[in-house]
Amino acid sequence: MNKRKFENWAVGISVVRSINGNFNADISKMPRTLPDKLGTIYATDKALKYCIRSYLVNVKKEKIFMWRRQNEKIKPLNIDQNFKILFEKNPTEIEREEILKNLLSCVDVRLFGCTYAGKNNNISIHGTTQISYGINGIQENQVYSNQILSPFQNLKKDDTTQTSMGDESKALDVCYVYDYNINPNNIGPENAQRLAEDDVEIFKEALCNGVNSVNTTTKIGSETLLVAYVELSKPKMLQNLKKLIEISKNEDGNLSIDITNMIKYLKKFDSDIVKTQIFYEKEKTNLVNKEKWNKLEEVDLLAK
Question: Whole-number mean pLDDT of the chain?
Fold first, then answer.
């Protein structure tokens, strides 16, 4: 692994499309909606982070701390038990500094941070990588529900011929657009393990492949169509890039993503930009005006 520190600053976007899916349900099992006039569908950062962690732990076999694990009775572990299983150390018997060192040996903690509220220690680690909520970019906020018949009798009814009923809710077609930024200085304390260049590379890989690798009932039909990554040599407080792209649906059902305004904006910081990459699925996504910036590196998302 390349242990060289990542010392630059990075920003980007991730575009996730979900057709007849429920990428991030609320407590009522409905797709989440903003309190605006359109009822715009959105997803939290937690939904995308779950997919990233799932890819890291199940595909890349990375050590992940913030992950649900179970005991032999198939019950979730508490945070101290999770630490003990993962690191083979009892956190109530070791010093705070050793707990911190072990936590930061996990790539998800170096990226997203964590709050460790154990029996004897409370440790808060800031994440170097922040992800916004994913907001629907095509404004088709159509939600529907289906009734589901169970083969089993309803336990609350005496009639043995009565089977139980349920329902599921889906969104017809949603395009979640996330912003993210990476600030390697947003981790502490000073002697803590720092974000490495390989951490950033594996984060980009997980962004490209994580959603596609999760095959749950609600997330099936969801896939990442585009990931943009912009690396700068010095910290810059850039505006959210997702406001600078326009997404439209073609007659064939595929998407066109116009990056004209994003390129125009980023050119203002041309002297500070080290790298600009866009990973996208070329068979399903038309990237409009990509030729307007020779600094742009195109990568086939499926090859990542």
Answer: 89
